[in-house]
Write a structure and sequence with these properties.
Elements: H1 3-14, E1 19-23, H2 30-37, E2 45-52, E3 57-63, H3 70-77, E4 82-84, H4 87-94, E5 111-114, E6 123-126, E7 133-138, H5 141-146, E8 149-150
Parallel strand pairs: 3-5, 5-8
Antiparallel strand pairs: 1-7, 2-3, 2-4, 6-7
Length: 151
């Protein structure tokens, strides 16, 4: 088990968040993850590491079937533009590769921006820093765990 995954599972236990871990073949996208889990893509959490025009790393989390609005996010983050963080930046900040970034538990603190639509889900699934496992939690816990700015 990867260090980041251990950190995330320990955080869930510490916060008394009921969760389950599901093993599956390696997945790199939300649609593939949903297919392996047998759930709607919208119940997976898309976790994107972005960089602001000033070089600040931020994260946006949203339902797996949605796209983020770069203009709205830049406005919420108080910057003129946002773009995808480089893979080496993601590894440095999140502690894992692109494609399995978790919504919380990163190596370095980042401001998280969360799409309100996630709050209307019952349960959600995310990768805990590895491509071969997913964690299932009640969506309501994301707000407490991520301490996000809602967008």
């Amino acid at each position: 088990m990867a260090d980041l995954e251990q950190k995330i599972l320990a955080l869930l236990k510490e916060q008394n968040v009921p969760f389950s871990v599901i093993e599956h073949e390696a997945v790199y996208t939300n649609p593939t993850m949903a297919e392996k889990l047998g759930v709607p893509v919208g119940d997976t959490v898309k976790n994107l590491m972005l960089e602001t025009a000033e070089g600040r790393v931020i994260q946006v989390i949203l339902p797996g079937d949605m796209r983020f609005d770069a203009r709205k996010l830049a406005e919420a983050a108080g910057t003129r533009k946002v773009g995808f963080a480089k893979p080496e930046t993601v590894l440095d900040v999140a502690g894992c590769e692109v494609g399995c970034v978790p919504p919380f538990g990163h190596l370095k603190p980042v401001q998280v921006y969360m799409d309100r639509n996630l709050l209307f889900k019952k349960e959600v699934y995310f990768n805990p820093g590895v491509h071969t496992r997913s964690v299932k939690i009640e969506a309501r816990w994301l707000k407490q765990l991520c301490k996000p700015v809602m967008v």
